[in-house]
Design goal:
Length: 242
């Protein structure tokens, strides 16, 4: 699919206009700061694009404000007593310095224990925690993927977990590969499930058009509630930190 882009400035708002081989215009506002993206058909007149953007200013400002006001997690130093989230549940971190391999485990219902070498830096602790989150998220994804591929009647060629600055997930409809944001390990399981369904539905419909919405309504009738829950949760410190 051929594309080209340029910036449109309206009322002190910057809009990234992407020209693509599509039939209709599609407007979206992305976290964490409310980046605005307007996809338009290749031959759409610039004045038509400008007037469309002007007509959506109220909607744009509302969504940008929502992202800018979204709670941010405080910076983590990975010391005992800090709060960490896993699958939507708040835990207290306990750091235990020891020789040997580093490890992370949940103890009871309120504690995450990080065992790590004496004198480990904040970054070294962060790496161990990040890889633990990655492992746990992959364990969550596999059964969900098996379940929803059957329901939606699609099949992925590959999937993975990675750091993503502006998306909770992505789907390459040509290669049929799906990527999910590592931060989803911290969120309630239903939020992960919603994002996975969202990406799988893209294997039926590439764009966020009426057909896409109709398919989401069919497969996950309460998807809007799950989306809103996810968008109200704190996002990671420092622009999601990855």
């Amino acid at each position: 699919m051929s594309t080209n882009s340029n910036l449109l400035h309206i009322s002190n708002i910057e809009i990234d206009v992407i020209r693509k081989d599509i039939k209709n215009m599609h407007l979206a506002v992305y976290p964490p700061h409310g980046r605005i993206r307007l996809a338009v058909p290749l031959k759409t007149d610039e004045e038509v694009v400008r007037l469309f953007a002007i007509s959506k200013l109220g909607w744009i400002k509302k969504h940008v404000k929502s992202f800018q006001e979204q709670a941010r997690e405080t910076k983590r130093d990975y010391v005992s007593g800090e709060s960490l989230f896993f699958q939507g549940i708040r835990y207290l971190l306990e750091v235990q310095e020891k020789n040997g391999y580093s490890s992370v485990k949940i103890e009871g219902t309120k504690k995450i224990i990080l065992k790590i070498k004496e004198g480990a830096t904040t970054e070294e602790k962060a790496i161990v925690m990040r890889e633990w989150y990655r492992k746990q998220l992959k364990l969550q994804i596999k059964p969900l993927l098996d379940k929803w591929e059957k329901i939606i009647e699609v099949s992925t060629n590959d999937w993975g977990v990675k750091h993503m600055k502006t998306k909770w997930g992505s789907c390459n409809t040509d290669s049929k590969n799906i990527w999910l944001n590592l931060e989803l390990a911290k969120k309630p399981p239903i939020c992960l499930e919603y994002i996975l369904v969202h990406e799988l539905v893209h294997l039926h419909e590439r764009n966020h058009n009426d057909r896409f919405v109709s398919l989401m309504d069919k497969f996950m009738p309460k998807w809007r509630l799950h989306r809103d829950e996810l968008n109200k949760l704190p996002i990671v410190h420092n622009d999601w930190g990855y």
